[in-house]
């Protein structure tokens, strides 16, 4: 159990799935949590489940201008952000030879470029306070590859390189940047996989089950804790043994 | 009330941990005052705070010496 009293956490894509589990866990351990969703409805759902422990905000992470304004508003209301969890992600699966430019662009924009933008907006406050935790949610398929997901795999592998480079830049300022790479977790995103894809994946999971969102949240909470201060540029794989790297 | 020059120099002394007499107008943050590139970024952040302004990235990159910092603030300050 970590203690996040007096810490402010920003979790993107927090209306459901892994993001929701992360927001709930950080909040239950004392953090004031701001969760973002793309729609007002999603934001309201976040405010609902967080109750007095935080609130939901509608934010399109790919929109630089509204992003900077939202970060400023959060910092004005709650103080500087201590913990940033870049979780928002989308899929637009297609075979590489059939993939449209807009499918490629949408996934790269949301899953990779937006992380750069959010980090850039948030890191200033962390630099000033000589303390900060950034956790980027990557994916096992960024390491192993997965047919039908060249865009998603490229973006998720990109996050690992991004995190390592940023980690080196800001390590001397007490800020850590790490990734958590989930395997196959029981969420709406994996429900959209077809049976053939699921069976192929399932055959390769030594733990013989899907992971729970709470099991990803636990790794995130550890990396966000004071105890993880000396871990940076690292990726923790949480995948039931399906890829040991 | 301190002059802009004095306030800029004070911030440089604080941010870079150098002695006041080292902060000569022609001194380069990275070559003469021992700053690395990230120190310079933080210095610009401190200037933005002190003078309540936002320095665009393309301008910030030109602030490399004590004099260039003073000039920037003189040209853009509301004071």
TrEMBL record, chain A:
The active site is at residue 152. The keyword Oxidoreductase applies. NADP(+) binds at residues 13-16, 38, 87, 152-156, 185. Keywords: Fatty acid biosynthesis, Fatty acid metabolism, Lipid biosynthesis, Lipid metabolism, NADP, Oxidoreductase. Its EC number is 1.1.1.100. GO terms for biological process: fatty acid elongation. Residues 7-188 form the Ketoreductase domain. It is an enzyme of class 1 (oxidoreductase). Pathway: Lipid metabolism; fatty acid biosynthesis. GO terms for molecular function: 3-oxoacyl-[acyl-carrier-protein] reductase (NADPH) activity; NAD binding. It comes from the Bacteria. It catalyses: a (3R)-hydroxyacyl-[ACP] + NADP(+) = a 3-oxoacyl-[ACP] + NADPH + H(+). Pfam families: adh_short_C2. Homotetramer. Belongs to the short-chain dehydrogenases/reductases (SDR) family. Catalyzes the NADPH-dependent reduction of beta-ketoacyl-ACP substrates to beta-hydroxyacyl-ACP products, the first reductive step in the elongation cycle of fatty acid biosynthesis. NCBIfam families: 3oxo_ACP_reduc, PRK05653.1-1, PRK07231.1, PRK12824.1, PRK12826.1-2. This is 3-oxoacyl-[acyl-carrier-protein] reductase. It comes from Idiomarina ramblicola.
Automatic annotation (TrEMBL), chain B:
It is found in: Cytoplasm. Signal peptide: none annotated. It comes from the Bacteria. InterPro entries: ACP, ACP-like_sf, PP-bd_ACP, Ppantetheine_attach_site. The keyword Phosphoprotein applies. The modification O-(pantetheine 4'-phosphoryl)serine is found at residue 37. One of its GO terms (cellular component) is membrane. The keyword Cytoplasm applies. GO terms for biological process: Kdo2-lipid A biosynthetic process; lipid A biosynthetic process. PANTHER family: ACYL CARRIER PROTEIN, CARRIER DOMAIN-CONTAINING PROTEIN. This is Acyl carrier protein. It comes from Idiomarina ramblicola.
